[in-house]
From TrEMBL, chain A:
Matches recorded under PANTHER family: DNA REPLICATION COMPLEX GINS PROTEIN PSF3 (PTHR22768)
GO terms for biological process, alphabetical: mitotic DNA replication initiation
Pfam families: PSF3_N, Sld5
Residues in DNA replication complex GINS protein PSF3 N-terminal domain copies: 8-59
Main location, first listed in the record: nucleus
Record domain GINS subunit: where: 75-166
Protein name: DNA replication complex GINS protein PSF3
Domain of life (superkingdom): Eukaryota
CDD domains: GINS_A_psf3, GINS_B_Psf3
Family: Belongs to the GINS3/PSF3 family.
Keywords linked to the UniProt accession: DNA replication, Nucleus
Protein's cellular compartments: Nucleus
GO cellular component, one term: GINS complex
Automatic annotation (TrEMBL), chain B:
InterPro entries the UniProt entry points to: GINS_A, GINS_bundle-like_dom_sf, GINS_Psf2, PSF2_N
Self-association state and partner proteins as the record states: Component of the GINS complex.
The protein, known as: DNA replication complex GINS protein PSF2
Tagged with keyword Electron transport: no
Keywords: DNA replication, Nucleus
Cellular localization per UniProt: Nucleus
Organism encoding this protein: Vanessa tameamea (Kamehameha butterfly)
Domain of life, per lineage: Eukaryota
Automatic annotation (TrEMBL), chain C:
GO cellular component: a single term: GINS complex
Function field: The GINS complex plays an essential role in the initiation of DNA replication.
The name this protein goes by in its record: DNA replication complex GINS protein SLD5
First-listed, main subcellular location of the protein, grouped into a coarse class: nucleus
Domain DNA replication complex GINS protein SLD5 C-terminal stretches: 159-216
Annotated keywords: DNA replication, Nucleus
Matches recorded under InterPro entries: GINS_A, GINS_bundle-like_dom_sf, GINS_Sld5, SLD5_C, Sld5_GINS_A
Flavoprotein is among the record's keywords: no
Organism: Vanessa tameamea (Kamehameha butterfly)
Keyword Nucleus: yes
CDD domains the record matches: GINS_A_Sld5 (cd11711), GINS_B_Sld5 (cd21692)
Record family assignment: Belongs to the GINS4/SLD5 family.
Gene expressing this chain: LOC113392539
Compartments reported by the entry: Nucleus
GO terms for biological process, alphabetical: DNA-templated DNA replication; double-strand break repair via break-induced replication
Length: 194, 196, 216
């Protein structure tokens, strides 16, 4: 229906993210899943982090073998911070795939507040993309953006550059008057001297 | 689209020139133009005007709107108004750039006009940023954008439409999952691509 | 100086070359900006290609230094760009969405509402076939027998009808319904003539096809 893509690499990366799970049944010979366990069998009640694709398939079994917990960025404490001011959160550190993983994880939220947080966060943080687009720092320099926010910024920068090169080209460049540019240069020169 | 493609579209606009040669009507696919009478103003598409000017076969007639007073009024209105005001026409920036580029000497006070047009453009571009942010904050699923020109609209692609797409995708995915928790369909195949 | 040669004989066709060009230009612009492939305008393309050939023959009769020669050449180059880019854009879409397009087109052919020209359809079918063979030769033939069945349709990529597009209304259209996914409060908007909007492609797809709106 929508733009689903069987071979989407970013989707494969997202579903490879680890999520905290609690095993609900004893699983013989599955102890290797828990790095801290010494036994062969995996005991009911064990909490470990496993990749989302695995968690999902264990969760959708009847009866489910695991219950999926929310990764901490989607938990109440972080939700409060995000709802207060989403722009203060460093997604580069805390949620590379914040929105994408959030979409998958939302159904495991009993209060179903994750969805609203995702939308609200996206709307608030849009202005960060806007300002990153015009900022002179390179996109690769440390910015608290998630992977997809970075992608957005990159393509917006391409547009921005194409437009400014259009404005500059020709016999009559419609850009900042050269006086202002010179003024800035002089200022910088002065600063460097002092 | 590339800005040069928008320029290409804008170049179909009809402008006035004064040829310095005489010639019969010329029958182009996009219409017939002429006859050319040396010293008499006539209408041609912008691309043809630029070409003739480059060959020094004509002078440009300044478009009505390329007038300091008229532009000052537009600039003031643009500053005051919360909304985008109506520009002289859909491709004002392209016309300005091309005409001032090849025929600055034909336009009285060309340098000042250039500055005002650039001011107007800058005011509108910064307003465009604020409006994009406001549009996203207010829901981000629909917006009305009267009086924005094609070049201006093009400057927010793909950012704005993609951001709106993404919001929609979050809504779709979280709604589907909350309404059917028993969704046991092929999980890893239901993913949506982030970059089409 | 027989400009008459270059002039169109208007009584031959009801539609003027100017109108054909305008239609093509709009079709090109819409094709560039719409997520899905649009119904083809092959008649217009053919007509314009004929026109171009005719013009080129006449230009060749003009002396090289004749001003008209370079004006006409310039115009023809502009039109050729539109046509090439239009056809290329369609081919790109056919390649990206080949499986979906071939499946949908088969149904449309039955009802006589095909979007693709016969040659585009042939191209699409061959493209799908080549992809299938390639996957078979490079992967499927080398994996264990029980893994060799592969539902090719699963690989289909669909255009995103929910993507947002910019449009300008050519005429007033009332009552466009914007679905509200969360609040179940669908919103209705009117597109006044000349107004511009950004909204989802899906509810206005038909308006693009019947020319009531233009994508910008």
């Amino acid at each position: 229906m929508s733009s689903s893509n069987y071979l989407s690499i970013s989707d494969i990366l997202v579903t490879n993210e680890k999520v905290p799970c609690k095993f609900l049944l004893d699983l013989p010979k599955m102890g290797f899943l828990d790095p801290s366990a010494a036994e062969n069998d995996l005991k009911a009640g064990t909490n470990i982090e496993i990749p989302l694709w695995l968690a999902e398939s264990l969760y959708t079994r009847r009866p489910p073998l695991v219950s999926v917990d929310l990764p901490k960025i989607y938990k109440e404490t972080y939700r409060e911070i995000l709802n207060a001011d989403a722009c203060t959160v460093d997604m580069h550190k805390l949620g590379q795939h914040f929105y994408e993983l959030g979409c998958y994880i939302a159904k495991h939220d009993i209060k179903s507040e994750v969805s609203a947080t995702l939308l609200n966060t996206y709307r608030q943080r849009f202005k960060m993309i806007l300002s990153a687009t015009v900022s002179t720092d390179s996109i690769n320099s440390v910015q608290p953006l998630s992977a997809s926010e970075r992608e957005r910024t990159k393509s917006a920068v391409v547009t921005e550059r194409a437009l400014s090169s259009w404005l500059k080209i020709g016999d009559c460049p419609l850009t900042t008057a050269s006086m202002i540019a010179n003024h800035r240069k002089r200022k910088r020169a002065e600063m460097e001297l002092s | 689209m590339d800005p040069f493609e928008i320029e290409f579209i804008g170049e179909n606009r009809i402008v006035s020139i004064i040829p310095n040669f005489s010639h019969d009507k010329i029958f182009l696919i996009c219409g017939e133009f002429g006859p050319f009478r040396a010293g008499l103003p006539m209408n041609v598409p912008l691309w043809l005007a630029v070409m003739l000017k480059q060959k020094q076969k004509c002078r440009m007639v300044p478009p009505d709107w390329m007038d300091i007073e008229a532009l000052e009024t537009i600039k003031e209105e643009e500053k005051i108004s919360r909304f985008f005001t109506k520009m002289p026409h859909e491709h004002y920036m392209i016309e300005a750039k091309l005409i001032l580029g090849v025929a600055a000497e034909d336009i009285p006070r060309a340098a000042e006009i250039k500055t005002i047009i650039k001011d107007i453009w800058d005011i509108r571009m910064s307003k465009l940023r604020t409006s994009m942010d406001a549009l996203m904050k207010s829901g981000g699923s629909y917006g009305r954008l009267d009086h924005l020109t094609m070049m201006e609209i093009n400057s927010v692609k793909p950012l704005l439409p993609q951001a709106m797409d993404e919001l929609h995708r979050i809504k779709m995915m979280t709604r589907q999952t909350s309404s059917s928790t028993l969704n046991s369909s092929t999980f890893s195949q239901s993913g949506s691509s982030q970059n089409k | 100086m027989d400009t008459e040669d270059i002039e169109l004989s208007e009584d031959e066709e009801e539609i003027t070359a100017e109108t054909v060009l305008k239609t093509l230009q709009n079709a090109w612009q819409n094709e560039r900006l719409s997520p899905e492939i649009l119904p083809h305008h092959n008649d217009m393309v053919e007509c314009m290609l004929g026109q171009i050939q005719h013009m080129e023959r006449n230009i060749n009769k003009l002396p090289k230094t004749d001003l008209r020669s370079c004006i006409h050449k310039m115009e023809l180059n502009r039109i050729k760009y539109i046509i090439c880019n239009y056809l290329k854009t369609r081919l790109n879409k056919i390649e990206s969405y080949c499986i979906a397009i071939v499946n949908e087109e088969k149904q449309r052919i039955e009802s006589g509402t095909n979007y693709l020209t016969p040659s585009e359809f042939r191209y699409a079918q061959e493209y799908v076939l080549n992809m299938e063979n390639h996957l078979k030769n490079t992967v499927l033939d080398h994996v264990p027998g029980n893994m060799q069945t592969f539902e090719f349709n699963k690989m289909a990529i669909y255009p995103n009808y929910q993507s947002h597009v910019f449009l300008k209304a050519n005429e007033t259209v009332n009552g466009i319904v914007l679905e509200d996914l969360l609040g179940d409060q669908d919103e209705e908007i009117d597109l006044e003539e000349g107004s511009q909007h950004i909204l989802q492609y899906k509810p206005i797809a038909d308006l693009v096809k019947n020319g009531k709106v233009q994508l910008v």
